[in-house]
């Protein structure tokens, strides 16, 4: 069994749960209108929100299929870093407990994605291969 299989499935479930529910409860449109548009992305907030959530769904499928893992990982990591910069950093480290809505969850997802993308560590000429 592939050593990253459980991590790929876990991250896929997280990405799907974070995206699919927003399709059915208007969460994606709210994220675009009530957050992204308000922080300077107007009038493209809703389009950007949909692009983000659809990229999560595509990344989840690719992780499950074990295809284009690095591409899916880089796109998702970029989105997570932007989330840290635009939302979570100002809230501190903790998601709950010592704070609220902080960076720790995104940080963990980034590290897990890197472990999935590079299961043997970083080696010469392995960054994009």
What radius of gyration results from the CA coordinates?
A: 15 Å
Percent helix range: 55-70%
Main sheet summary:
none
Overall 3D geometry?
Answer: globular
Describe the structure.
- This protein is mostly helical.
- It has 5 helices and no strands.
- The chain has helices at residues 5-24, 27-36, 45-65, 69-88, 104-117.
- Helix 2 crosses helix 3 (45-65), helix 3 (45-65) runs antiparallel to helix 4 (69-88) and helix 4 (69-88) packs antiparallel against helix 5 (104-117).
- The longest helix has 21 residues, at 45-65.
- The model has no long low-confidence stretch (mean pLDDT 93).
TL;DR of this structure?
Helices cover 66% and strands 0% of the residues. The chain is built from 5 helices and no strands.
């Amino acid at each position: 069994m592939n050593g990253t299989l459980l991590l790929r499935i876990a991250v896929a479930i997280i990405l799907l749960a974070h995206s699919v529910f927003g399709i059915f409860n208007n969460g994606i449109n709210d994220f675009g209108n009530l957050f992204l548009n308000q922080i300077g992305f107007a009038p493209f907030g809703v389009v950007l929100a949909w692009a983000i959530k659809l990229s999560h769904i595509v990344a989840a499928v690719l992780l499950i299929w074990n295809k284009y893992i690095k591409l899916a990982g880089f796109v998702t990591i970029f989105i997570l870093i932007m989330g840290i910069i635009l939302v979570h950093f100002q809230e501190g480290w903790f998601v709950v407990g010592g704070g609220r809505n902080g960076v720790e969850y995104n940080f963990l997802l980034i590290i897990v994605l890197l472990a999935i993308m590079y299961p043997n560590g970083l080696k010469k000429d392995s960054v994009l291969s």
